[in-house]
Design brief:
Layout (H helix, E strand, L loop, with lengths): L1 E10 L2 E13 L3 E6 L5 E3 L2 E3 L6 E6 L4 E5 L6 E8 L3 E3 L2 E14 L4 E4 L1 H10 L4 H19 L7 H11 L12
Parallel strand pairs: 1-10
Antiparallel strand pairs: 1-2, 2-3, 2-4, 3-6, 4-5, 6-7, 7-8, 8-10, 9-10, 10-11
Length: 177
């Protein structure tokens, strides 16, 4: 398994959340990154406390979202960032976080979050009309997939997470660049 850096941006020039993990593999849904407990993460240029539990992230082949799944250990079991299409190059996944998030709570409720932030950033970050429409449509599409318990968000994500939790991962130390 190769180390990989995951870098979300708020705009093409403003780093947001980042993670050091391992590229676990690829399936028909996308690329999967493992984040063992204790993985490095940062916000902007500032180191943040390491991850508190094992997690996996899915970067779809075709979709404006990124899944962060850590199972039933937190009140939010699934966190899906609405982003530009994730791109993988030279050991780095990069995408722009478009503010909107779709979450699944432990009781199965699906919620859309940060619509207010999305409205503000449409102006402050200058989102194009095409980007706004694509983000809104993708948010609704992902929310519906989650309500219907579609894959890769449930059993597939759980299987990838079990690989991380099996203990076969060293502590990630992917280079940030």
């Amino acid at each position: 398994m190769d180390p990989v850096t995951v870098q979300f941006y708020k705009s093409p020039r403003a780093p947001h959340w980042g993670f050091a993990g391992y590229l676990m593999g690829e399936d028909e849904h996308g690329h999967w990154v493992g984040l063992p407990q204790g993985s490095d993460r940062w916000k902007g240029e500032t180191a943040w406390r390491p991850t508190q539990e094992d997690a996996v992230q899915c970067f779809p082949h075709d979709g404006w979202w990124v899944l962060h799944y850590n199972g039933p250990v937190r009140p939010v079991t699934h966190f899906v960032d609405i982003t530009t299409q994730p791109m993988l190059s030279h050991g780095r996944f990069e995408m722009i976080d478009l503010d909107l998030d779709v979450v699944v709570l432990a009781d199965g409720t699906v919620e859309i979050e940060d619509e207010d932030e999305f409205e503000v950033n449409q102006v402050s970050l200058g989102y194009s009309q095409e980007t706004i429409q694509k983000a809104e449509a993708e948010t609704q599409r992902v929310a519906e997939l989650l309500r219907r318990r579609e894959e890769p968000f449930f059993d597939v994500a759980k299987q990838w997470l079990q690989m991380v939790s099996s203990g076969s991962f060293p502590h990630p130390g992917a280079e940030r660049s």
